[in-house]
Design brief:
The complex is a heterodimer. By secondary structure, chain A is an alpha/beta fold. Chain A is 36% helix and 26% strand. Helix content of chain B is 83%, strand content 0%. The chains are: A alpha/beta, B mainly alpha. At the A-B interface, α2, β6 and α3 of A face α6 and α7 of B.
């Protein structure tokens, strides 16, 4: 069954000059923020900093007093509010599963309202349970029969039911105990990769922000203090507040929150597509490099260096299979893997294409 | 005491059916009107204090007086009895419906809106089901009220089990009064028990935990 979404995919979500006041209190103060399609943007700040209020302007749970919100360039006021909200998944800390509905009815509620047939709903609910790693026979259970973590998974499944291109999450793991929280974060990262959709995620936990976020927007007293990628925030904090929040002076603490892509180096100048050994030798001499990443139709084939190339008969023999990481892998575990395999480098690959190189000594230098 | 004699001479089987019929009609009307009124007041909360004040005043009128007051309008028999039952029973049902609807936890309503339910869908899919246990509690109070009023209906020729009690009083027949009285009491207990079971089921099914 095809669901009519207001937008199939998100190019941008743009908050322009958004301000919200409650009496004398200014919850959100002239915030300008652009969320890029496909990214996970973290909104972080102390309680009362306006992050939740700002999040809620996106699905019009909060109507700003000033300023506007645009999705794919269109003012969201133009849309029917019910349709807008059905196109935006929403997950909150209190979970808010309806206590009088079974897991199936909770997940399938919107599908039912959209007029799906029983079989279609059954099928979709099972798909979603599978995605959030819950057994199928949970369909008949009631929320109170589930643990907190299981409820949160059902909440996520419900938010994903209509396959919305945009997901708003308000401290979804906030109420869970630390171990469960870590576990769900890991799982969420996996789901996020599968779904590949735009997510705005509110948290007050900087570790969580570094772990899950592509970019991080820092709020304080209703104002946006800084937006940037994790390394930018660590290396160039806008002010004392940001520096303190990201703990810039203790960035080693974040080794486990940094990702491979944060510290990989550009691979562009090492990439070459060649068939023969002498061709490659010539190319490496011309470029004055000792190391090359060989590709075939853009996809990674192998790596080699000058020494092994000179020793070998042909190109095939000189090719080595490198350690491969993806940009979202944790830096700490990548480094551990390299150490175990005694490798000084790893190739970072996205959709089979090499996008960067991780050099063990380079990484350590940057971290110092 | 000759229970069998009372049962047969006073035609208690027939009387019981009459009684339950009036009870059923009165309760059904009360539930429909009470729930609808509760819903209406939920939509128009400004009217709620006024409406509940009026119903409260009606509630304080003694049953007998109310029956007599209704006579000129509805004459003798079933009609004024049912009307009086309904007038008494609307308050608990409407009040519990109203309270049930307005006291649903805000977070559920907020989530329902946030995921894209319309006002109407929020009311039908979330608010109303979550208010059901409280509505059922109101109906249970109404069951007891209705039972009492329908029995008093015997005074104004409504039939039912109030009639043999009247006969018993007129004839100074202790047996008739006691047998019928105990039987009405037992019926009331049974109906209240059934209502309690339904209420418990609804609380388990739709209750907030």
């Amino acid at each position: 069954m095809v669901i009519e979404m207001l937008f199939r995919r998100i190019e941008t979500v743009e908050l322009r000059d958004v301000t919200k006041r409650y009496g004398d209190f200014t919850a959100v103060d002239h915030v300008n923020l652009e969320i890029i399609g496909g990214e996970l943007l973290i909104l972080i700040g102390p309680s009362g900093s306006g992050k939740t209020t700002l999040l809620r302007t996106i699905n019009r749970l909060v109507e700003p007093d000033e300023g506007e919100v645009f999705i794919n360039g269109r003012n969201i006021k133009e849309f029917d509010v019910v349709k807008l909200r059905r196109s935006i998944g929403y997950v909150i800390q209190q979970i808010g599963l309806f206590p009088h509905m079974t897991v199936k009815d909770n997940i399938g509620l919107l599908l039912k309202l959209e007029g799906w047939s029983e079989e279609e709903i059954d099928k979709r609910v099972k798909e979603l349970l599978h995605l959030v790693a819950l057994p199928e026979d949970f369909v008949t259970r009631y929320p109170h029969q589930l643990s907190g973590g299981q409820q949160q998974r059902v909440g996520l499944a419900r938010a994903l039911a209509l396959n919305p291109p945009l997901l708003l999450m308000d401290e979804p793991f906030g109420a869970l105990d630390p171990i469960l929280r870590k576990q769900l974060q890991e799982e969420f990262l996996r789901i996020k990769e599968v779904l590949g959709r735009t997510i705005v995620f509110v948290t007050h936990d900087i570790e969580e922000a570094f772990k899950l976020g592509d970019r991080i927007a820092i709020m304080r007293d209703g104002r946006l203090v800084q937006v940037g990628y994790p390394d930018e925030l660590v290396l160039n904090p806008a002010d004392e507040f940001v520096a303190k929040l990201v703990n810039a002076d203790k960035k080693f603490k974040h080794l486990d929150t940094l990702k491979v892509k944060d510290l990989m180096v550009d691979v562009e100048k090492y990439i070459v597509e060649v068939q023969r050994k002498d061709e490659l030798l010539q190319w490496m001499r011309d470029k004055n490099i000792e190391f090359a990443v060989i590709v075939e139709k853009g996809a990674l084939k192998g790596v080699t260096d000058l020494k092994s190339l000179l020793k070998s008969q042909d190109l095939e023999e000189a090719l080595m299979e490198p350690l491969v990481f993806s940009p979202g892998d944790s830096l700490a575990s990548a480094l551990a893997e390299m150490k175990r395999r005694n490798a000084f480098l790893g190739v970072v690959v996205e959709r089979e294409k090499p996008v960067g190189i991780l050099l063990a000594n380079e990484v350590l230098l940057k971290l110092l | 005491m000759d229970i069998r004699w009372v049962w047969e001479s006073q035609n208690l089987a027939q009387r019981t059916l009459e009684h339950l019929r009036m009870f059923g009609i009165a309760l059904a009307l009360s539930v429909v009107i009470g729930v609808l009124l509760g819903l209406y007041l939920y939509r128009r909360p400004k009217l709620a204090p006024i409406a509940f004040n009026v119903l409260n005043i009606l509630e304080t009128v003694p049953t007998l007086a109310l029956l007599v007051l209704l006579l000129p309008l509805l004459s003798l028999g079933e009609k004024p009895t049912i009307a009086a039952s309904v007038i008494y029973s609307i308050l608990p049902i409407a009040r519990n419906t109203y309270t049930g609807l307005t006291s649903v936890e805000r977070s559920y309503i907020e989530v329902a809106k946030a995921i894209g339910l319309s006002e109407r869908e929020v009311l039908l899919k979330v608010r109303f089901p979550l208010a059901l246990p409280l509505i059922a509690a109101g109906v249970r109070i109404a069951v007891v009220f209705t039972m009492g009023v329908v029995t008093l209906g015997g005074l104004i020729a409504a039939g039912g089990l109030g009639a043999p009690i009247q006969t018993g009083i007129h004839l100074y027949d202790r047996d008739i009064i006691i047998v019928t009285g105990l039987w009405v009491g037992a019926l009331a207990l049974i109906l209240d028990g059934v209502a309690a079971l339904i209420e418990r089921y609804l609380r388990d099914r739709y209750g907030r935990r």
